[in-house]
Amino acid sequence: MHTSTGLAFTALLLGMLMAQLDTTVVVAALPRLVADLDSGGAVAGVTAGYLLTVTVATPVLGRLGDLFGQRAVFQGALALFAAGSLACALAPTMPALIAARGVQGLGGGGLVVTAVSALARMFGREELVRRQACLTGVFALSALAGPPLGGLLAAGPGWRWIFLLNLPLCAAAALLASSGLPGRSPAPEGGAGGSFDVAGTVLVAVVGAGVVALGGVESLARGGPATVGVVALVAGCAAAFVLVERRVAAPLIPPALFLDRGVALSVAATGLAGTALFGSFTFVPPAVAAGTGLGVGETGLLLLALTGGQLVATTAFSALVGRRPRLPGWGRFALATGTVGMIGLAALPALDGAGRAPALAVAGSAMGLVGAALGLSLQAYTLIAQARARPESIGATMGTLTFARQLGGSLGAAGFGWLVLVAPSERAGLSLAFGAAAGCLVAALLVAPRAADDPAGAGSRVAADR
Predict the structure, then answer these.
(1) How much of the chain exceeds pLDDT 70, in percent?
(2) Average pLDDT rounded to a whole number, residues 330-356
(3) CA 286 to CA 356: how far, in whole Å?
(4) How far apart are CA 34 and CA 27, in angstroms?
(5) What pTM does this model have?
(6) CA 324 to the chain's CA centroid
(7) Distance (Å, whole) CA 192 – CA 104
(8) Are 109 and 180 in contact, with CB atoms under 8 Å apart?
(9) For the residues of 90-130, what is the DSSP string, one character each?
(10) What is the rounded distance in angstroms from the CA atom of residue 66 to the CA atom of residue 195?
């Protein structure tokens, strides 16, 4: 492997780590943010603003990577992320901080989708499989280290250092990525590099904003005329987006992507799995507390079972996939494992009277299975899509896959939250939510790619031009 390729790979991992960390690192610092900026009512926007622009930016910057090359888009995303981080650190008011988080999210979405797109062009399938564990490790590390790191910085030098620390990391990633990342695709789909789907971008922005609002705004989760209006707007814009993409010369998400059965089924399974696995995360702590009677601190420690299951599964995948290279089998195993875990979590709130030891056993094993399902499904379906994507539309393919996962997570959060609210009790609501999540994983299992959708030789090509 060339030195420049190794440095570029390190830069991509660093960019993904920063983008993923900033989804969780501010959570523990929110009380200090509220106190310093004296604006508690708008605090939800600190996380929602970032999630919104990450979601919207993913398909857009994925497509721009096809048109102008992953190298240019990655450097541009780094610049946006650094500018947003600096603006967050200097923000004098809560509205200014929320706006800066939006800019930061635009860069964060670009860092993630460009990384998975660039890797598909830099490495062949066997090398991608070996390196996938590093990417999954980044997700696990960000989930595990984000909240504690944010709390330590907020309690020590101050919450502004959460954002200031991104600046030297962005500079390091920019230097590492100065060579080795792919340039423009050899034959961009849709014609000239300057052709871009503006109408599709506007529509996908509205759809993404509406879905994130449904998943993140409590008043919308409770239902009512506003909720009906947002749902209608999202559905209408989604339908219009499909029509636009079928007619424009250079679509944001080319319909031709779905002519490949392996890609189409991977996107569908990823969206459903994202609904279950990401949409239900918010409800895991209350379910564990309801079933075990543990306090906040003890519940937080038990949540490490999620990360532990993810790390064990991804390590086993890396060790065994050489002997069992059929990726659809791994993906289906992950979905079945997650279904069992979700059923365990659904049963957990009803175990309050069964004794702490049985409840702890169910909670730990169920969360371990869900974490394993997350790690394996992320790897399997990302690798299938990377392998089967056309060279000229790798960015659009990976952007679509990531967008499906993020939208699914927001829809799941909204739908499961509604179930908890309308249930006769919180315990019943939590059981309903995890039962629905298990149903989503069963649906994903039914539509997931089979062995015939990912022939052994698919994606075995060596990296294209850089």
Answers:
(1) 89
(2) 89
(3) 15
(4) 12
(5) 0.81
(6) 26
(7) 29
(8) no
(9) H--SHHHHHHHHHHHHHHHHHHHHHHHHHHHHHS-HHHHHH
(10) 11
